[in-house]
Automatic annotation (TrEMBL):
This is Uncharacterized protein. It comes from the Eukaryota.
């Protein structure tokens, strides 16, 4: 059996749809000229379409961890594996949002999302048809009596604004891009930089 080691590009975002789209684009047509290699998600499962009998696919450990698959998972023709609980909940939320009419943006102080902006660090990203230096976005937890920790996993790398950075400024805003007020409470952020090749 011949083996191929393929390099997957970074997806546009870490949503399941974008990750699977980039994963599917990784496989060149010459591997399976009759039927393309396609991963998909449905009803809580990551599934593989039709494959030739002699084709097996093993995903990198980081991708298996993101999808919630055992580290020894092997995809063959029409195989299916349960997705990670958090991914299933995320997809159910997306499907529910698609059914609901669009909601107006919250008024300042009544936000549901928190955006971390890094104006002098990363290049602008598109958010709600606006160009902003968006580092990450997450649900805003209105628990003012306890510490709240958000872990973004896997790490998502974004293009830097320049070759050299002497200082980093982060802004925390809501959906309407209004600054959030943390009063005198400390806020800590861990950033991960990938070395330049």
């Amino acid at each position: 059996m011949r083996e191929y080691f393929l390099s997957m590009k970074e997806p546009k975002s870490m949503t399941l749809n974008d990750v699977l789209d980039e994963l599917n684009d990784t496989f060149p047509a010459f591997l399976t000229p009759v039927v393309p290699i396609r991963f998909s998600y449905s009803n809580g499962e990551i599934s593989m379409g039709e494959l030739p009998a002699d084709v097996e696919i093993r995903l990198p450990n980081l991708l298996q961890e993101y999808l919630g698959l055992p580290m020894d998972t092997v995809f063959t023709s029409n195989s299916k594996f349960p997705a990670k609980k958090e991914l299933v909940e995320e997809q159910e939320e997306i499907e529910y949002e698609d059914l609901k009419p669009p909601e107006p943006k919250p008024l300042p102080g009544l936000a549901n999302r928190i955006l971390v902006l890094a104006p002098n660090l990363i290049q602008n990203q598109t958010y709600e048809n606006q160009s902003v230096p968006l580092l990450r976005e997450t649900k805003l937890i209105h628990d003012y009596n306890n510490e709240v920790e958000h872990i973004f996993n896997p790490v998502c790398y974004l293009p830097l604004e320049g070759e050299e950075v002497n200082s980093i400024r982060l802004n925390f805003v809501d959906e309407s891009l209004t600054n959030l007020n943390f009063a005198d409470q400390p806020v800590g952020v861990n950033l991960h930089f990938r070395p330049k090749p």
